[in-house]
Structure of Flp pilus assembly protein TadG:
Amino acid sequence: MRARTCPRDDQGSIELAIATPLLLLLVLFVVQTALWAHAGHVAETIAHRALAATRVLDATEASGQAEAELVANQLGGDLLTDLEVKVERTDSTAHVTVQAEVPSLLPGLTWPVRQERSAPVEHFVGAP
């Protein structure tokens, strides 16, 4: 009996069978990274709008929280999961923290998103 060898054409098929899953994994990673970056921008917008609503004259933490929820419903959709918005206002500053996670296309990985913004609050200054 003669040992059977792999023809040249089969060699390319074996390489393709190995390279294809790796290429698909790379494509999934690129798409996941793009989703994570987009989610970061959405979280940044939520934080920015909540901060703007919190720091205006006579605003409250509740008004900033309401604005954050409104923007999150408009922009977030299913992109941000476990969304947590923390709004704080003192006599001098307003601070907003947005934390969430992005659903993962790659099993076993978590993709957290966090944005923080602070700014001074508005005060009425009377005429001199």
